[in-house]
Amino acid sequence: MTTTPMHLLDDELERLTLSWCLKAGMLPMSDGSTKLLAFSGEAALETAEWAAWKLQWKPSQWSLRGDVAAVERELARLRPRTLSGGEDSWMSALSEEDLAVGDGSNVDEIRRKSQAEPVVKLVNHLLEEAVHMEATDIHLEPDEDGLSVRLRIDGLLRDHLVLPLWLQASVTSRIKILADLDISEKRLPQDGRVPYHHGDEPIDIRVSTLPTHLGEKVVMRLLRRTPAVQDLEQIGMPPLVQKHFEALSDRPQGLLFVTGPTGSGKTSTLYAALQRLLPRPINITTLEDPVEYRLRGANQVQINEKAGLSFPEALRSILRQDPDVILIGEIRDSETAHIAIQAAQTGHLVFSTLHTNDAVSAVDRLIELGGSRSLIASALLGILAQRLVRKVCSCHTVEPPTALQRERLQFLGELPARVPQARGCAECGHTGYKGRVGVFELLDIDDTVREAIVAGAPEAEVLRLSSCRSLAMDALDKVEAGITTLDEILRVALR
After folding, report:
1. What is the DSSP code (8-state) at residue 134?
2. How far apart are CA 315 and CA 255, in angstroms?
């Protein structure tokens, strides 16, 4: 069933005020026949009733409609109005005539317009807003409606602003200048970095540009340089998993993997593991691409493929540096895998990551990279798989699981009688969630599992022989503890 398109009611917006609508995540709209209070999260009935009273709408004249995509997009389009602040503000000084960059513009004109004060202040504002909202990435995407600015917060992209499309070239060029990129090159992707300070906090911004048919798309990743490295308990590791993982990390040699997709918190877990080892009289060296956080007491090496410093080359050099513990940011090729396995068998404790869906799949991934079953089995200590789920906001309710949740989560067995259900408020941006926490499963490579790997047993048999408790079961524990929701188990596809 298709939903009738909605349009904004400007007069009603003025009466409610834009600032109230942005805070409430609600807009007065119409589908042509019915007045609507459209919302982007879970609607609070008392909020909607107040808005209807303010607008003097009778109960029979309006209804509620939830449409996250449409409302967030409209709010993003309206949000630049809040930046104007009068005739003297920098936003009011954004002029198409003065700042638009045409196809025939030369480099000097592009540079001049991209360094105009309104453009400089706009880019600075975007960075400050992203840091304040704890975003990890900023996406600037040209489309038919304008230049969309989206922020990745708690792992998901949110619409933030929609700027006029004529600003796209000036804003993109300003970012490229900051990242020391070629502003005349628009046909090829480019990568750069921007050193940035938010107050006293240094932040490393990684910039990537990509040519699209409507103009260049820009993604900026915000890497905080001085975050406090969390311990294993703080990232959400269950006590029993933490106990076993720490025991494996205390071994003098062997190979310990952390697996999961990009953005699942693998780096935080590895840093937490190394943090425990730093006070010991040992030599810890890391190979990273990039070095995301400074870990005092460790020798951190930045991979530089262009200069010829690849993972295999750097790893060979490290092995001549008398290391006790080695962290390899990621095993991407057979050569690195072979050297890592060899190092783990010759007196070194090696930590690394792989991109696999669960713990047991890492074994087959290592075999695909050319490792023999016997060498893999003898080197492996354990494999930790993890995901990040969003933590439910304090505005949540506690209710019985829905029919859809029961149907889709049958594989978990009996669900709790009452579980947190996300709602949404101004504090959480009307998403119902604020912050993230890890969920984990640990495959301990004991003698029984080691023999099964050497014998070529299927994954299901390896799991049956192990004491590994699944990601989904750990997530369900966190649902019962009121930390996350069943919908998050569904969203990150835990099974």
Report:
1. T
2. 14
| Cα gap 131→137, rounded to integer Å | 9
pLDDT at 439: 95
Pick out the chain residues at pLDDT < 50.
Answer: 1, 86-88
Q: Which pLDDT score, from 0 to 100, does residue 79 have? A: 83
Q: Locate tokens 């008392």: which residue?
A: 46
Structure tokens at 78: 């309206």
Tokens describing residue 74: 């409209």
Instruction: Name the E strands within 341-463.
Output: 349-354, 380-392, 397-399, 419-421, 433-444
Is there a contact between 366 and 376 (Cβ–Cβ < 8 Å)? Answer: yes
The secondary structure of 69-112 as a DSSP string is HHHHHHHHHHGGGGGT-STTSTTTT--HHHH---TT--HHHHHH
Among residues 343, 338, 363, which one has the least CA distance to residue 466? 363
- What is the structure's pLDDT at 87? 42
Q: Which amino acid is at 151?
A: L
Tokens of 369: 């990279």
Separation of first and last alpha carbons in the chain: 30
Q: ω before 279 within 30° of 0 (cis)?
A: no
Q: What is the chain's length?
A: 495
Give pLDDT, residue 102: 62
Q: What is the pLDDT of residue 421?
A: 93
State residue 88's pLDDT score. Answer: 44
Q: What pLDDT does 80 receive?
A: 80
